[in-house]
Amino acid sequence: MHFIIALLGVYRAEIGLFILALMFIAFVRERYSPTVIAVVGACAFALLGLLNEKSLFSVFSNSAPLTVGAMFVLSGALIRTGVINRVADLIMARAKKHPRLALAEVALGAAVLSAFLNNTPVVVLLIPIMFKLAQATGYPVKKLLIPMNTISVLGGCLTLIGTSTNLIVAGIAADQGMEPFGIFDITLYGLAGAAAGIVALLCLSFLLPSDPPAISGETGGTVQDYLTELVVPQDSELIGREIGALGLFSPSVVLLGLKRGGEIRRREILTEELRSGDRLIVRADGTAIMTLRESGGFDLGVAADSSTSAREGTVIEAMVAPSHPSIGERLLDIPFLHALRVRIIGIHRSRHLPGPALAEARVRGADRLLIAGSDDAIRSLRDNPHLIGVDISRTRAFRRNKAWIAMAAMAAVVLLSALDMVGIGMAAVIAVGVILVTRCIDPEEAWAAIDGDVLILIFAMLAVGLALEQAGSVALMVGWITPLLTIAPVWSLVFIVYFFALLLSELLSNNAVAALLTPITIALAQQLGVDPRPLIIALMIGASACFATPIGYQTNALVYAAGDYRFADFVRIGVPINIIVGLAVCSALVVLG
Questions:
Q1: Span 547-569, pLDDT tens digits
Q2: 299 forms bridges with which residues in the sheet?
Q3: What distance in Å separates the CA atoms of residue 201 and residue 126, rounded to the nearest whole number?
Q4: Is pTM beyond 0.85 here?
């Protein structure tokens, strides 16, 4: 025991590096998630006495993870209030008239949105849009998804709040005594990288595959469209209005037909005036259906008892079991519809919509139903052996009347932090308070918008970085590297830091790499007597602008799955883009920094 204690006393720095090496090996092997590895690594430092209790818990006072969490909530509020969806609808409406120009507008929009929002929800939103744009323009979708993702990631490098990585690095740098970064301090260098990346995409597009995805379908597997019907009530204020003047229809709500008196019409219906009992047959995603349900202008769906309203009770989702006795029969004849006071407000079927109308749709196994009903009726449905996965729908209606509050809150964060009136962390937390008290988003939805895995990873890697510093491991590494770098030109340090961070981030979690390398980079700059700021900016962008592997950045993985790409597809286009973007960013830092 005394021997072990003596070893810990003499070789603290070396033991810290050994633990770090084991963590890197674990990151590369990916048998456990990066978060688990980071937490276990921090625990190892604590158990060996290389990190004391006070220092371990001090990482929770770091503002960077809290700022990241607040930005997740603000992004969630923009989604919840329908701001992001409205932008998507405008893009698709534009694409119908000018499909090729719409591609350029989407690229610009992706860059701008990603500069101020977490780019993960931006990419999630844009994936189904790219599938639709591929249909409108005739371009293979695989030639659109990777470029869209690349531009979104580069857009995240334009501001301090564009990626969680930037905030992590800035937070650690401030703790190390550096002057805090402003929201636009990295914009000039990010623009250089974005411009180079876009040019590279245009020149190297021939390297992208053109075969169709084999697994994802029309929407990239991210959106569920339902068939539903909008029923005009007897006392509706909409009676007498032209259908085309309702302002309801968008890419999220597509008019398919008009059902009147048992007859279904598909053509020339926009000029028709609504009558009592008319049914508008539409295709809509789940959120649009819930928004229409709460609007009160129409009653939705079908019910055996016409007095059953879609606005009553709870909405649940349920899948029709292959053993259901009504397989092949009309949806209106399904037994529970007559036995319970419920209303079916939508039906989803993989690959295509059923029809010709909701009531006449023939039931198939695995059809997914949206059902509104009382609590007693919902309990009965849960006991139905022919329905699978009966649960309360997680889809919520947009709160469009709160959209201006969510946009104003995000704009205030950007403006206040840009003018150095309030720190970005404080501004983001205050904005979260505003959107919660104004009910732009419910508390449970706000907390669900936070990626807890990312926050735990950040806290754990902050603890690892602090342990390495206290154990002397950082000083030891700097001592090894300094003699090699003293003979190198000062300008080359930016390139070395950038491409070292890039290489590690292609294999490991970019947040983990950023948290780990920030204190090392600052210590190295101090040892060499150079300004650490350009090196830190190089680290920020190098750790995020990773395009050569599906695991290089979290949005890469989303696109990889949605587009049914091969690993080699990313390597083929990503390696040259990595090099071109890196050279542009580093050159801008050397010349302008």
A1: 987 766 777 876 876 787 887 88
A2: 231
A3: 18
A4: no
Other Cβ atoms less than 10 A from the Cβ of 526: the count is 13
Closest-CA residue to 461 (of 542, 415, 516, 507): 516
What tokens appear for 350 in the block? 């993989």
Cα within 13 Å of Cα(535), Cβ side: 24
Provide CB contacts within 8 A for 55, sequence distance 6+.
463, 466, 467, 470
Residue type, 286: G
Cα dist from 512 to 38, 524, 536, whole Å: 8, 19, 15
Angle at 543 between CA 423 and CA 568, to 5 degrees: 145
Q: Is 440 exposed, middle or buried (0-12, 13-18, 19+ CB in 10 A)?
A: buried
CA–CA dist 200, 203 (Å, integer): 5
Q: What is the pLDDT of residues 162-174, one digit of tens each?
A: 887 888 888 888 8
Please name every residue paired with 279 in a beta bridge, in sequence order, or none if there are none.
231, 259
Sign of dihedral through CA atoms 174, 192, 550, 88?
Answer: positive
Both structure tokens of 356: 């010709």
Model pLDDT for residues 78-89, shown as the tens digit of each residue: 888 888 777 777
DSSP letters for 251-267: TTEEEEEEEETTEEE-S
Residues contacting 526, CB < 8 A, separation 6+: 532
Gap between the Cα atoms of 347 and 361, Å rounded:
9
- Give bridge partners of residue 283 from the DSSP assignment: 227, 254
Strand partners, 280: 230, 258
Sign for the pseudo-dihedral over CA of 466, 467, 468, 469: positive
Residues near 100 by beta carbon (within 8 Å), at least 6 away in sequence? 137
Place of tokens 């688990």: 36
Per-position b or e across 334-352, b if 16+ CB within 10 A of its CB = bebbeebbbbbbbbbbeee
What is the Cα–Cα distance from 40 to 512, expressed in whole angstroms?
13
Which H helix or E strand runs over 518?
A: helix 510-528
Q: Are 120 and 554 in contact (CB under 8 A)?
A: yes
Q: Two tokens at 236?
A: 């509706």
pLDDT at 297 (0 to 100): 78
| Domains of the chain, CATH where assigned | 225-392 (3.30.70.1450)
> SS3 letters for 340-398?
CCEEEEEEECCCCCCCCCCCCCECCCCCEEEEEECHHHHHHHHCCCCEEEEEECCCCCC
Q: How long a stretch of residues is the chain?
A: 593
Alpha helix positions (H), 183-258? 187-204
Alpha-carbon distance of 582 to 548, in angstroms, equals 13
